[in-house]
Amino acid sequence: MATITSSETNGVERAGKSFRLPLAVISYLQAVPLTLILGFFLLLPILMIAVVSFWDYDFAQMYPDFLTMNYEETLGSWVTWKTYLNTLKYAFLVWAITLFIGFWVAYFLAFHIRTTSMQMVLFLICTVPFLTSNIIRMISWIPVLGRNGLINSALTGSGVISQPIEWLLYSDFAVVLAMVHLYTLFMVTPIFNTLMRIDKSLVEAARDAGATSWQVLTNVIMPLAKPGMAIGTIFVVTLVMADFSTVQVMSGGQSASVALMMKNQMSLLQYPAAAANAVVLLVLVLMMVAGILRIVDIRKEL
Amino acid sequence: MYREPRSHEFYLLAIFFTVFVLFLYGPLSAVLILSFQGPNGGLTFPLNGVSLRWFANLFETQAVGDFGGSFRRSAMLGMMVMLVTVIVSLLAGLAFRRKFIGATALFYLAVASLVVPSIIVSLGIGVLFNQLGLQPAWYSSGFGAHLTWTLPFGVLIMFAVFNRFSPAYEEAARDLGATSWQTFRHVVLPMIAPSLIGVGLFGFTLSYDEFARTLMTAGSFNTLPLEIYGMTTNVTTPVLYALGTVTTVFSFLVIAGTLGLIVHLNRRRAKS
């Protein structure tokens, strides 16, 4: 550094200045790739769906048009409403169960495990299955729940029941169980994140003021955990609303969800009908998310 | 140090946690065990002997569509998605450190990418490519579809990382005469490297396992999850489990390798 003469330093600085971009421009340049990718692969496709949902179609092709037929068929059909209701039922059940499990698991990790390294190890144990294939994890329930599966053979073998239980697999029960299995981590992680940021002195203060551990839990920790619960809710609800594979495989084709209905229309090349369905589903999901976002500011919680 | 004795609550929750972990891993281990099913065994217990018959079956083309090809495509796609996710998320994370017009809109666009049902993304990109007269393929439309799923995770993680990142280090580097590139390369990058590797792991595994978004965008060649999804409806032999075991072991290896790398980096940083 000392060997650099003053004139050289000035030269470097001047060169640097002529080269230097204003900070705002740098920010824009850094944001360009994300904007371009999401613009082309998210915004444009959704606009395309909105346009196509008004088109006409036959068994082979789509024809540009402006018809409300696709919406009339979608919203005017009793099957659609039943399917939406069924999807909302799954969403509610899975949400309630994952919220319960997610909160207690996160609470245990955050407040009952004393060393950070142990917390991380246990958290990773919960995380690893979620980084493996969803379909494989779904299929893995079949040998457990099936008619000759583990549970039924254990129960009949020990004489608890004489006939295998039929509703374990290919039922709403199986769908909800598999979804809980697939999506609980999306509830655990945000709640764990929020709980880890709670100042432990708040808990101590409450205890010093004479609160029982149950009162600490319900009056201090749970209210502070709400943002995490809200973010987890966004994940779980949107994932369940979009699910078609779990419903298809685990209900054995006996139940339907909105996304499964869309997928069937797509396999019949009825793209405009599927697009109308997509628009309705998208509006519903975005309204649910917007409702939750009123409670929580994601940017503050990260 | 004095430690409080464990309460009843602890033991109750410890049992709850253990049951939860068993619930997570139990069914998966059933698949692992059943993939070693004997040649005459079926899809359920009991094991009818032990064999590697179904693993061998994997490599016969008539049993599984195209295991080798679809695995190669998925691994390749995962790598591409990983690379782009890391770079684009890092850049976006840096951009979000300063206020700029449209920052909020871009942030919520990323959130939207997370909540828009994947089948809608799949349908939209499929129809868009169709109308543009482009042939969908796993490396073009499929690649973009996967990015709409991995990028928001990457961006949110980088957002969280930079929220906690003290600018004091960069100021110190600048005071010592470092250029902004040097500051980034020698100060910021080493500090956020573990998080970047984490983003990479997310990018790879989310893409490697994704299939709802690939449904309409993969073109004429299947990725591995599509192949497996197809098998769930028409394969009735344990070869399905063998495939499950192989992909799960592969995922575990990727995760273990990545975690090893992160631990190694943290150790090295702690030493210096």
Give an overview in words.
- The complex is a heterodimer of chains A (302) and B (272).
- Chain A is an all-alpha fold.
- Chain A contains 16 helices and two strands.
- Chain B is mostly helical and 272 residues long.
- Chain B has a domain at 65-234: MetI-like (MetI-like fold, Orthogonal Bundle), CATH 1.10.3720.10.
- Chain B is built from ten helices and no strands.
- Chain B starts with 7 loop residues before the first helix and ends with a helix.
- The mean pLDDT of chain B is 86.
- Chains A and B meet through helix 2, helix 4, helix 5, helix 6 and helix 7 of A and helix 1, helix 3, helix 4, helix 5 and helix 6 of B.
- Chain B: Its main location: membrane.
- Chain B: Keywords: Cell membrane, Membrane, Transmembrane, Transmembrane helix, Transport.
- Chain B: InterPro entries: Bact_Polyamine_Transport, MetI-like, MetI-like_sf.
- Chain B: This is Spermidine/putrescine transport system permease protein.
